[in-house]
């Protein structure tokens, strides 16, 4: 009841808005041609009628069939509607019986509309055709695939799809891979939008796979109960995953079975994709990345705590990483990067001893900036950046900047450090080992010596080794030295 009255007051609001708008418009018209009042009323009435009609269609979806809807303003688009309602094809919105064939039939019709030219060469423009799930919950027994490749500008939206108990365990609920043997050079699909969907893989396979496609949108989806990947992206580019929730198990953290989480929420095996404003609440690996030039922003990972063997974001692109992670929240889960070359991590929050692990494969670390992040831990001495040298030490370190991070209850590490030391004598021996990230590496030192006594000493850097700096004066003085060291300077 509450919802119903809410809806009607909303409709009223919209209508009154339109009245104001139309009257405003009419006011303007009246200046030009006098006495247009009847026309305005007529337009208002037809508008109101169309609103009510729309409302009744929405509440009785099964009575709707894709046929021309009446309109007081006939235009070509209206005579050729491209919204395909799955219940019109016999899909069962209660989820009791198998809806695979019905939904596939709706998809087939949607991909069969009169093409409006091309997007990329070889991609027919479907003009924005929609497969509407009408808020239903549908059981499916095999992957939903498009019957033809080489189409684009299509949306599938608005409902729940659940894998049946006999769904193929290597399948994906929505599988955008090619069904036809297309030429190697062309993309399978372009501008396919999957929106407002709950995908339940029923612990049989994955949620969505996007293969060799361009400009795919995954927007406001909830993907759960996957055993392989929540979302798999393979080759192609520009898959945009946004405003979505992914979790192998439906939990809200601190789950007893967390140690057993096994799936990967997002598996990016392609370039130029974006994951923005996405929460990954359970999986062994939040995002596995093996393609370049992907960006992650507003990603919150609390999938499987690093302490239990989980990883938030795993960058497995040694030698050419080219990844940006910004404005994200690593919640008890870490970022792991193998031999990173060009990696940027900034403005992110690491909670619960979550950190960044730079894992040496061949000892390469190049072009890495980790700046302006916030770390919070439990005083276990966990380093905010950990160098995993189990395979090899890092021996090619260049342009690595770790600076301006802040830590609470964790061990702060940086490539730039400043210290001051008060002393009375001739030697100032300053040790930077507690804070510098790399052992035995100082590429640049600057210092100043402040002495207020009567004498005016001569002084010099006498030794820089093992992350220690020694300053010496030619006579005994009471002085304070200020030293800045840098491990990132390009030689
Ligand atoms: C995790 O998996 C192991 C081995 O399969 C099993 O013995 C254990 O009960 C599981 N734990 C939970 C909490 O589900
Ligand atoms: C500094 O040390 C010298 C001798 O080592 C001593 O004579 C002098 O009083 C000391 N000055 C201060 C300020 O401690
Ligand atoms: C600098 O100090 C190290 C010990 O930290 C020492 O082994 C080395 O010989 C010193 N170098 C010079 C030039 O004194």
Automatic annotation (TrEMBL):
Comp. bias regions, Low complexity: 57-74
Protein name: Rhamnogalacturonase A/B/Epimerase-like pectate lyase domain-containing protein
PANTHER family per record: POLYGALACTURONASE QRT3
Alphabetical keyword list: Cell wall, Secreted, Signal
Signal peptide: 1-24
Keyword Signal in record: yes
Subcellular compartments: Secreted, Cell wall
Origin species: Vicia faba (Broad bean)
Ranges of residues in domain Rhamnogalacturonase A/B/Epimerase-like pectate lyase: 84-308
SUPFAM superfamilies given in the database record: Pectin lyase-like
Family matches, as InterPro entries: PbH1, Pectin_lyas_fold, Pectin_lyase_fold/virulence, QRT3-like, RHGA/B-epi-like_pectate_lyase
Major location category of this protein: secreted
Region span, Disordered: 57-91
GO-annotated molecular function: polygalacturonase activity
Upper classification of the organism: Eukaryota, Viridiplantae, Streptophyta, Embryophyta, Tracheophyta
């Amino acid at each position: 009841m509450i919802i119903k009255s809410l809806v009607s007051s909303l409709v009223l609001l919209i209508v009154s808005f339109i009245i104001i708008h139309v009257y405003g418009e009419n006011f303007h018209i009246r200046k030009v041609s006098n006495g247009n009042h009847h026309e305005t009323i007529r337009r208002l009435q037809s508008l109101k009628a169309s609103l009510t009609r729309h409302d009744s269609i929405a509440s009785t979806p099964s009575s709707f069939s894709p046929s021309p809807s009446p309109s007081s303003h006939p235009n070509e688009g209206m005579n050729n509607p491209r919204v395909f309602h799955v219940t019109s094809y016999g899909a069962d919105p209660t989820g009791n019986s198998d809806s695979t064939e019905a939904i596939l039939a709706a998809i087939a019709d949607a991909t069969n509309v009169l093409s409006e030219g091309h997007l990329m060469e070889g991609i027919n423009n479907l003009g924005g055709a929609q497969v509407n799930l009408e808020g239903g919950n549908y059981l499916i027994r095999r992957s939903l695939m498009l019957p033809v490749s080489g189409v684009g500008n299509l949306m599938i939206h608005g409902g729940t799809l659940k894998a049946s108990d006999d769904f193929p365990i290597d399948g994906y609920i929505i599988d955008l891979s090619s069904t036809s043997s297309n030429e190697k050079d062309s993309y399978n699909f372009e501008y396919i939008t999957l929106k407002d969907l709950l995908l339940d893989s029923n612990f049989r396979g994955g949620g969505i796979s996007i293969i060799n496609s361009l400009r795919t949108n995954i927007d406001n989806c909830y993907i759960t109960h996957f055993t392989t990947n929540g979302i798999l992206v393979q080759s192609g580019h520009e898959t945009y995953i946004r405003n979505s929730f992914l979790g192998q198990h439906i939990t809200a953290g601190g789950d007893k079975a967390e140690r057993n989480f096994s799936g990967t929420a997002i598996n990016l095996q392609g370039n130029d994709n974006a994951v923005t404003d996405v929460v990954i609440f359970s999986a062994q690996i939040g995002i596995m990345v093996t393609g370049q030039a992907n960006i992650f922003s507003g990603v919150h990972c609390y999938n499987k705590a690093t302490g239990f063997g989980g990883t938030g974001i795993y960058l497995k692109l040694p030698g050419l990483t080219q990844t940006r992670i910004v404005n994200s929240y690593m919640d008890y889960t870490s970022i792991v990067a193998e031999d990173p070359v060009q990696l940027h991590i900034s403005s992110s929050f690491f909670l619960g001893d979550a950190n960044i692990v730079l894992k040496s494969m061949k000892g390469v670390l190049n072009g890495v900036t980790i700046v302006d992040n916030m770390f919070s831990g439990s005083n276990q001495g966990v380093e905010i950046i950990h160098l995993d040298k189990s395979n090899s030490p890092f021996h090619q370190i260049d342009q690595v900047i770790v600076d301006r991070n802040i830590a609470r209850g964790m061990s702060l590490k940086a490539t730039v450090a400043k210290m001051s030391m008060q002393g009375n004598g001739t030697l100032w021996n300053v040790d930077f080992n507690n804070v510098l990230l790399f052992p035995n590496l100082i590429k640049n030192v600057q210092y100043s010596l402040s002495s207020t006594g009567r004498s005016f000493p001569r002084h010099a850097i006498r030794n820089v080794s093992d992350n220690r700096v020694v300053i010496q004066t030619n006579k005994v003085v009471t002085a304070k030295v200020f030293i800045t060291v840098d491990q990132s300077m390009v030689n």
